[in-house]
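> call design_seq(struct)
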């Protein structure tokens, strides 16, 4: 069987344990030599005659899937699958799997790191100090502040635990929230509007879909406290970046911590005018531990499906 492997952290020389497992299943492997996610036109010639596909953040559109008659499984390297046209995959009989939870600690820790970085403007102060300046900057303490979490899944729970360690109050919105977990961990189960209006810091941990695209727009931002900080370590597009820009310029928002953007990489983003916009290159899951976990899980999912075994992580049943 022929398998395409595109994640940048699952190429020759990286995650050898997972690759050796995959090579034990099939030696017919194709890799992504670009060092970045692939466009649909780049994918088609690589994927056209493959039966299996371990997918990074590539553009897996209906056009791509229509050109791949032999494809049986797309095993996403990670939890998100918004870049996969899951309905088209289902129509073509292609199973899509993901690896939920295996990178939760890594992404959650980065999200809280972004919160700290914005609250104390750490990157800007580091840059200025290295240049010889001795800047005085008044930041914000987190103790006693309210953190609003939108999406209390595995990642949101890690962020909540970090916030509790800093003495923050935690409120959370999630349409599928675990009320028992909230009670056990002193997290207030809240509505979307309550999180928007009560929070000093808002951390987004939502999938990107028709309901969440530009969820954080002009009208929602207007209802936030003055000086709110927003962190997005999930998917670009949840924040309307034009609305966020206007809110930063007016002072309505104190800052943003972004690991995801509407267009990636975010070349010449006007958000970068503000030193309190802290940007990282969609790197939340990129720790040694998380990449090993995702590699092993995505390889196992692929092998299970191609071997006819039951896989519990199918997302397009």
């Amino acid at each position: 069987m022929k398998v395409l492997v595109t994640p940048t952290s699952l190429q020759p020389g990286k995650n050898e344990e997972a690759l050796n497992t995959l090579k034990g299943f099939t030696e017919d492997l194709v890799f992504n030599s670009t060092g970045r996610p692939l466009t649909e036109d780049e994918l088609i010639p690589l994927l056209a005659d493959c039966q299996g596909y371990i997918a990074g953040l590539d553009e897996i559109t209906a056009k791509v899937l229509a050109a791949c008659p032999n494809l049986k499984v797309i095993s996403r390297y990670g939890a998100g699958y918004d870049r996969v046209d899951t309905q088209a995959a289902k129509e073509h009989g292609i199973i899509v799997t993901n690896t939920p939870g295996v990178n939760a600690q890594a992404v959650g820790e980065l999200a809280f790191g972004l919160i700290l970085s914005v609250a104390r403007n750490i990157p800007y102060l580091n840059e200025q100090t290295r240049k010889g300046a001795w800047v005085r900057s008044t930041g914000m303490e987190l103790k006693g502040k309210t953190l609003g979490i939108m999406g209390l899944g595995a990642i949101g729970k890690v962020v909540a635990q970090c916030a509790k360690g800093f003495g923050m109050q935690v409120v959370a919105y999630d349409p599928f929230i675990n009320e028992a977990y909230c009670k056990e961990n002193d997290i207030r189960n809240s509505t979307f509007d309550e999180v928007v209006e009560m929070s000093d810091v808002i951390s987004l941990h939502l999938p990107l879909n028709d309901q969440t695209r530009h969820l954080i727009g002009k009208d929602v931002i207007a209802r936030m406290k003055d000086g709110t900080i927003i962190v997005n370590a999930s998917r670009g597009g949840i924040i309307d970046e034009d609305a966020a820009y206007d809110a930063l310029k007016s002072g309505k928002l104190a800052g943003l911590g972004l690991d995801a953007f509407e267009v990636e990489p975010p070349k010449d983003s006007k958000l970068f005018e503000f030193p309190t916009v802290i940007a990282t290159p969609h790197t939340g899951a990129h720790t040694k531990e998380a990449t090993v976990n995702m590699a092993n899980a995505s390889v196992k999912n692929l092998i299970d499906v191609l071997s006819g075994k039951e896989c519990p992580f199918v997302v397009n049943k």
